[in-house]
Amino acid sequence: MLAPLRYGAFRYLAAGRMVNMLGNGVAPIALAFAVLDLTGSVRDLGLVVGARSLATVLFVLFGGVVADRLPRRLVLVGSNVLGTLTQAAVAALVLTGTATVPLILALGVANGMVSALAQPASAAATPQTVPSELIQQANAIIRLGINASMIGGAALGGLLVATVGPGWGLAVDALTFAIAAAAFAGLRIAAPPVTSTRRSVVADLREGWTEFTGRTWVWVVVLGFMLLNAALAGGVNVLGPAVADETIGRSAWGVVLAAEAAGMVVGGLIALRIRVRRLLLLGVACMFAESFLLLGLALAPTMIVLVAASATVGIAVEQYAVAWDTSIAQHIPADRLARVYSYDMLGSWVAIPLGQVAVGPLSAAIGTRDTLLILAALVLLAVLGMLASRDVRQLQVVAPARAADAAQPEPADGGPSDSPTTKPTEPAARA
Question: Which helix (H) or strand (E) holds 48?
Fold first, then answer.
């Protein structure tokens, strides 16, 4: 189960993503309460997080092209350096008392653009670091590591916000970007073919679109997550902190988010050992659990209920995440993988800003409880829609020998590499 750790390239990638997610555990809590402290407005919070999400959506296709053209190590290091600068600027504004909603919003947009560059490269790098027969284990190990980091990050974020203020939480996030950049600097994997840089960006996007639309199970799942993610982003990221402020408290909200990360660790251990032929079917079916936290916030916002719901959600999410990354890695050619991931991210995220921005006015009009119940119903409808697809239900795990033929290795980056991409072997960066 731990065989992927024998490869140095995989260890560097896993370390960088773990540190990224440590900051990811702190950042949403710190940013949410920084805005609430500044204006006390859920609507302003929705605008800030929605603007960042919109920037990520608008630039993610470009990020996929860049990740398929340039060495993914270069993209990951550069994007994390830029992330350090943007988050450090936000932290400085909050700590000095000079922050305003427009300034935080502008820096959030910049950080969203950075995320759009990093995420396709990060997702597409994993299958270049291990042989094809270890892809599922590699995805599970990475998920285990980053979710263990999320436990500490979420708990630390709640503690920092409750004791020294949200500005220090944002400063910690900036530091994790810098550490992740150092980890990714040690990553040695194959570079994209030189000939790909001679084509236009439009041609590259068209090729990625052909890969994306050529598999029904891919676009059906992405459409489902378009609705599901919009509901979760508005319910958990915007209404969640507001409900916590009125009920369990800020530090307790950090514990709730940490419980989800703990559930993800348990789910990752399960995903390491699970062996089913229809892995994607299992993963998508587990997404029914995504409604639990929304229902808890609406009907019983107590620590016991919210922690239990959050942990259950975490276990379920890991089954889907590993199933999805494994399915994509086994069926998409390596030289087009980042672009397919970018279309996946675009479709999955495009409605997130709408959900984040709209949830404030909607909750003001009909009440927070009813809004959360509607969002939970949308999650259930999204999962049912994905399971209605025959292709989603019947997609099977590819045997190692066939997975090796599904995606061809890329030529070397010009430097030494300890990744297995020279063999005939052949899959949140920030969310």
Answer: helix 42-69
